[in-house]
Amino acid sequence: MIKHFDARKQQRAAWWLLLVAILVYAIVMSLQATLRYDTFKATAFDLGNMDQVLWNTIHGRWFQFTNQAVDWYGPPTRLALHFEPILLPLSLLYAFRADPHLLLIFQTLALASGALPVFLLTRKYIPEWPLLATLMAVIYLISPALLGLNIFDFHPISLATPSLLYAVLALTYRRYGWFILACILAAACKEDIPFTLAILGLFLIWKYKLPRLGIALTIGSLLWSFMAFGIIIPHFYPGTQHNNFWYRYEILGSSPSAAIGNVIVHPWLLFTTFITFDRFYYLASLFRSTGFLCLLAPEWLLLALPGLAENLLSTDPLLYSGVYHYNAAIIPFVMFAAIHGTRRLITCWQTWRGEDCENGPWSPKGYAPMKRQALSITVPQAQDEAAPLTPWQPLARSFSSAYKRLAAAINTWLSAGLDSMKRVPQRVQQNPASIRLIAFIQTRRTSLVCMLSIKWQSFSERMEPLARGVPVLRLQWITFAWILVMAALNLIVIAPTLNNFWADHFPGTREQNIQRLLSMIPADASISAGSNLNPHVSERQRLAVFPSISDSSPDTPSTVQYIIVDLNAVFPEDRVSTDNEINHLIRSGQYIELARTEGVVLLVRRST
Fold first, then answer.
1. Element (H, E) at 335
2. Taking the alpha carbons of 142, 146, 148, 151 in that order, is the dihedral positive or negative?
3. pLDDT band for position 368 (cuts 50, 70, 90)
4. Max CA-CA distance within the chain?
């Protein structure tokens, strides 16, 4: 009775601690993100861009933006750079008031909500340690990858992180309608997310034994990416040089097709070029927050391969710095791997201690015990249908029934396709060469399995004395301490990089004087603004990033009417050239100085 009471008390404490953690994170990070904007540390790339895109979209000019610099070229539409249809519903945030504060707070709340599926999945797979669910949620919230994703302006891809978390949560509880919806929302965040979803589809076939859903998800995701990369982006940015971001991978080839050919012909390029200390350091920063427990479930890390490849194969160090928005599709699967890796650690420990993993007090219901010969995960059983309805279940069931009707329409086509695919192996197996190849593969596979089994048996025998001396309850607290120490170490190691993003003061006299200059600019005037001032004037149709003084409007590009630059925010190596550019514009008679304060210069075109 006492143990039962203690378990219930721990579960209540876990829920309360989760709510406190989410609330603290939401308040602190919302304050930091908005404070960063108010103290002019937010930048044109990408808060200024996204603010202008959403402002234009809500005013009927879908995806349009002119906020480009001299080194940022292309047509004045976001569709020429990325395919992010999530921007359409996001623009509704500006229906009543256009304000970048809304974007920053919304992004924080969305990322904070991702702690809930992490908590629920941990509780599902490791119910014997209720407080571990809260710990995993906290680890998710304080991971440097998530903090960097949250604090560095606003990016639609950040919404893919909670979408993927909720997708796997829905999959775990067999809510396939909600799973499909979450996948669609994730794919709508950026054109490369569907590659991750395609691998998730293969994962459904392999681990969850859901071939039809997996095939549909894989094919649909690949079609989505093909439409984005092959049709939409080239349509809005015609020509051979329509990809603004391929410069990051030009070391592999001048184009994606050339890169694939070079890797096939010269595979050593991947080892001689991309195996570097800073890339290993990046991987360590991703895995360290979970105490490297994610490495115990490597199959879940396979789902992060598209994002990892995109970052690790880049020559731009920002992609593998570990604190920007490039980790949005990686974070969820690191957390899932950590949850399942911890489950495996517990089960292995029980096996080494000789405890009954299936019926013992530490065995979670619906999770098959792990044997020495294999490390496997089974899909949890569906919830009890007799459970009382929650307020959300009627809506979930209506959506699920709609999905079932849609699925029924394509089931016939999928069944026919599967039947035709089954006939192909039968024809291949009749070929003598195929028979010899299959026999060779089976022999090698059997040898590999035997070797791994022997190695695992030997390792288990060495671990058994240690496991017998450490009860599972003590292992719990050792695991807690290990994860906390590693998470704290990760924050300390990444702190110098993250410190570049935090606001270092509250708005004061300087910010008030800058706001006075900004208020002198008419709301409908075209303007070129320095990077840190740009997001404060981005709710207009014509905008550029200084030193560019020509907006790239879709009708008639023209020289901007106003220029405002914060000389104190210019990089030291660019300070002289920026001063010279401003002085040249004044001496040439094109612009006159309208005001100057706190290192901020406001110019107006003479003809204005």
1. helix 331-353
2. negative
3. very low
4. 87
Which one-letter amino acid corresponds to residue 594?
Answer: L
For residue range 176-202, list pLDDT tens digits in order: 999 999 999 999 999 999 999 999 999
Q: Hey, what amino acid is at 238?
A: P
The whole-angstrom separation of Cα 26 and Cα 256 is 40
Q: How far apart are CA 412 and CA 520, in angstroms?
A: 65
- pTM for the model: 0.84
Mean pLDDT of the chain: 84
543 burial (CB, 10 Å; 0-12 / 13-18 / 19+) is: buried
Which amino acid belongs to residue 316? D
One-letter amino acid at 345 equals L
Q: CA 274, CA 24: separation in Å to the nearest integer? A: 39
Judged on CB neighbours under 10 Å (0-12, 13-18, 19+), 110 is middle
**CA 591, CA 597: separation in Å to the nearest integer?**
17
**Own/partner long-range contacts of 234-237 (Cβ < 8 Å, ≥24 apart):** 235/79, 236/75, 236/77, 236/79, 236/80, 237/74, 237/75, 237/80, 237/81
**Residue with token string 């992609």:** 319
Q: Cα separation of 132 and 484, whole Å?
A: 11
Q: Give how far the C-alpha of residue 245 lies from the chain's centroid of Cα atoms, to the nearest Å.
A: 18
How many angstroms from the chain centroid is the CA of residue 155? Answer: 10
Smallest Cα–Cα separation from 203: which of 444, 397, 420, 377? 377
Contacts of residue 589, defined as CB under 8 A and 6 or more positions apart, other chains included, come to 606
| CA separation for the pair 53, 472 (Å, rounded) | 54
Judge contact between 568 and 603, C-beta under 8 A.
Answer: no
C-alpha to C-alpha distance for 233 and 222, rounded to whole angstroms: 15
Calculate Rg over the CA atoms of the chain.
27
> What's 369's DSSP letter?
P
Under a CB-based contact definition with an 8 Å cutoff, are residues 527 and 521 in contact? yes
Other beta carbons less than 10 A from residue 197's beta carbon: 26
Confidence check: pLDDT of 436 > 90? no
Distance CA 547, CA 528 (A): 8
